[in-house]
Amino acid sequence: MAIDERYTTQRMLALRKVTRAVTELLRGQLKDHLSTLGPIFRPRTVLGEYVEGTKDTVRGAEKTFKEFAALYEAVATAKPYSLPKEIKQPVEFDSWSLEILPVEYNHTARLGSESKVVVITSPLKWVLAYAGYGVEPLRQMVADSERPSAEVRRFVVHPLLMHVVAKQAGLSQLFESLHFPIRAERFPELGELPITVITSSISTLRPPDEVIIESTEIAGRDSFEEVVRMEDIGRMRSPLQDRLIEIVKSHDPKP
Question: What is the pTM assigned to this prediction?
């Protein structure tokens, strides 16, 4: 089977260079934003005295805690966790420093009768987590049936706290305006646990399976990194710009 001309070896080399350069730039920008905005992501900003180590009174904290507790019960008592539904207050919390790691997932690449499982990295899509409580440690936790339930609970609580914090009013709009949309996603192996993910306005794509298989054979490893979607760069728009255009059109419909 012929390789799609959009993904010849030469073209892939160029796309990889562009992807790495774009990733380096945008990841640096995102880290700067998070360094400045880090205090906003502390659980006490929305849960106040319901978080261990603080006696701050926060407006709406009781309602937020009830929402958090209900979400914890729904997630923790189901597979793959099967934990007790009770959540003690104040909520124990080990870390409030932030880390971002690119999203990885398994993909079965197929070419004729050949197939292989490849770990795919999305370089412009990051899991936002409290340090030490990202997706990979949680995956390891889920896979180890001998882990004490108290330890598993900590690894469930921290992503839930991040989810609750990331939902606070204005935060999603702020990151949207910075061209780093923030949202919750589910990973199949982690059940219904919402994982906070930050993406870039520039997306990446996974080439056809034959390209992936050829690339992994050449590299000698079962991993592959998505490449930047070039057309996204030309389509970049500012949310403020879009709103201003709408205002102009609503008051002056002339083309």
Answer: 0.88
